[in-house]
Give the backbone structure.
Amino acid sequence: MEQLLSKDLLGIKNLKLDEINFIFDTADKFKEVLQRPIKKVPSLRHMTIANVFFENSTRTKLSFELAQKRLSADVINFSSSMSSVKKGESLLDTINNILVMKVDMIVMRHPDPGAPHFVAKNINKSVINAGDGTHEHPTQALLDCYTIKEKLGEIKNKKIAIIGDISHSRVAISNIYALQKLGAKVMLCGPSTLIPKHISSLNVHIENDIKNALKWCDVANVLRIQLERQGNNNFPSLREYGLYYGINKKLLEKIKKDIIIMHPGPINRGVEISSDVADSKNSLVLDQVENGVAIRMAVMYLLSQKNI
């Protein structure tokens, strides 16, 4: 494969397996670059990339910006809280005003599902979805799978449990699509109030008992409880959630099994996972952050070939 099929990366659902592996192979090369004394290549020095974030983000925005600078791109950052969006400007007008300043690529996060897809249909530049509501977060899923593959050698037939707030997570949906394309078996675990009824149609196992999920899996990808997205009380309290679904050292010792622990961040320590688990030798949380830069470098580099 010489390039990605689409000019955009909007989700994992429409990516081919060959494209995912192509991104991983390219990320391998950029990861090697990041180990050098000078962690920079001139690959995108001809490009200007705009990070257009209509929703707060720290980890993802920093990761994209660092990846852009490692590729020598010019970078501009847009925040809706300090823009004409507050004055009633439409989404497309905002994007077109950015593009007319000779911007070549848009990295976009938006609270509404489908917003990056709408923008991509209406502009001729590449759009990367950095998270759209509770829909998808493709680069997070790619970096998660890349991290698992790096640790285990392969993903095919591995058992991955996605644990926690499935209903409000864009990470969960993208991970399900990516893991299944790569041949993994996927289980969702959490309170029934946090697992959407329709999601069983995606050919995933559903489990409400954390102990059963941990006994089954090779990897536990633990999701953040997203209180800011929850309109109703889906469980009595954070303390009670932590009691029944939190992963701690004592629980893992009872399971008597070596399990890889992942978390897309930010971690609510003591709720989803305890500090002694988050910082343990089985935790790949910091590996995920490191690999995020290489994966995002790969995605932007490959999409840039569409702009040449």
